[in-house]
């Protein structure tokens, strides 16, 4: 924005903000408005019970709806319409600042959810819009989530007899879920909503790996080895009998049925194309997903050009870093050196890899107080990703239980510890997925009991992933990136997110093939073919989600730079970060207005 335009807008903001701050001193929270928001959250948990479980609400831990059926989508449509009408009764101008933020978030959420339903999109556990005729893929969906939940180390609790009973009932419904999924997959084959072949080929072994002949080897058997000895003997016996029955009679047969269906019926009819432009209303769907994930009005071409520009900028920084190491070859040769020299693969066991991440945590811990005035109370742990999903998984963070019974967990997939490379961006990965990235953002949000619950547990990718990517840029301030090879790893992570802007749009708008996208990623960041393939297939599975990272991070950095210059000595980085995380996850337009109001108070 040009300076004179910004001055005009700033003056307008000062005027309206002063009125708003004056009004806020005289306006309390609107109780009736708060009741509607609370009722909405409670009702939402009934319709999205896996989300309720993730949020620590155990009331619906026994439910497993087929949330992609026509009848279910109709139920959601009525639900969202009803609450949109209830919220529009309130005059936004008569609400205080916090309620206005809630109002803006809520209205947007209802409208975009309704728009998604009209495009045959449903929302799954992780709030990813999913076409109802493609009930799951290799990256996300109930069959994947159920494996994590049933392992005893996921979001499904196994602390009480009631917890076990809930899981037995929920798992017992997977047979009906499977039958419905196959029905809708077949409808997709008939109406043109068909998964790409490259995804289906990954889904089949995932389903097959969960089918075992020895029930005690099943991941779903694990909770039976962890039954608390304090349980009454009769309850222990009942749990063992009922859960083994569900594993043998429902779970294993259902996964086999899915594997057989995908292999024998669906795979031969899967499509060779990869972009959404090959689907009915595909361009409209992709435009919607861009707005959903970026929470902006940026169009595909604008995002594509930003990606190309960022790739160019980061490549130049990579060249400068390579020169600092004294390496005389070109950048591709440097990438090869970092991937192949034995000095960068020192680990022998998964435990050694996990300990290296723990060392990163110890390094940054003393420096966090310089950048943050408020930190979360939520406990934090580092785990190895479960074997059954490790081959297709990326490192990830799973939020903890706000009640404190389950910590936030940073999962690291380790297929072969001896091949785990130290230059893969370990430090930047930890900053993103763990601290101060997702763990800080999600935990601080959930611990703020003054937020309405739909905001305490809400998620917007551009803000949440944007914050996590921005967190990677804090490495030097936190005592990391002192090793140029680790800094190069961080640059590779950053260019990775810039590449996403290019390939995601190109695959869905410019006919870029899967192979072209893989090779573009390999050429620009030096990632190996296996890693590039997993990433590109993730973008194929969930289009536009990968656009959210850079979009949000660029805005946060832009605001930091702007306020540093405008506030001068009044600017405090810890206050800035606290304000960014304060009030929880929200769409970027709402977030930017909030930050502008904060600047005026400094």
Number of helices: 26
Number of strand segments: 5
Helicity, in percent? Answer: 55-70%
Mean pLDDT: 92
Terminal Cα span:
22 Å
Radius of gyration: 24 Å
Strand order of the largest sheet: 3-5-4
As residue ranges, the low-confidence spans are: 1-26
Biggest sheet features: 3 strands, mixed
Overall SS class: mainly alpha
Describe this structure in words.
The structure is a single chain. This protein is mainly alpha-helical and 602 residues long. Helix 12 runs antiparallel to helix 21 and helix 21 packs antiparallel against helix 22. The N terminus is likely disordered.
Put the structure in a nutshell.
By secondary structure, this protein is mainly alpha-helical.
Characteristic terms for this protein:
602 residues; 3% strand; 3-stranded mixed beta sheet; disordered N terminus; mainly alpha
How do the strands and helices of this protein lay out in sequence?
Elements: H1 3-26, H2 31-47, H3 49-54, H4 70-87, H5 97-118, E1 121-123, E2 129-131, H6 142-149, H7 161-172, H8 174-191, H9 197-209, H10 233-266, H11 282-294, H12 300-325, H13 331-340, H14 350-364, H15 368-371, E3 380-384, H16 387-390, E4 396-398, E5 408-412, H17 426-433, H18 438-447, H19 453-456, H20 461-472, H21 484-509, H22 514-525, H23 529-541, H24 548-567, H25 573-581, H26 588-599
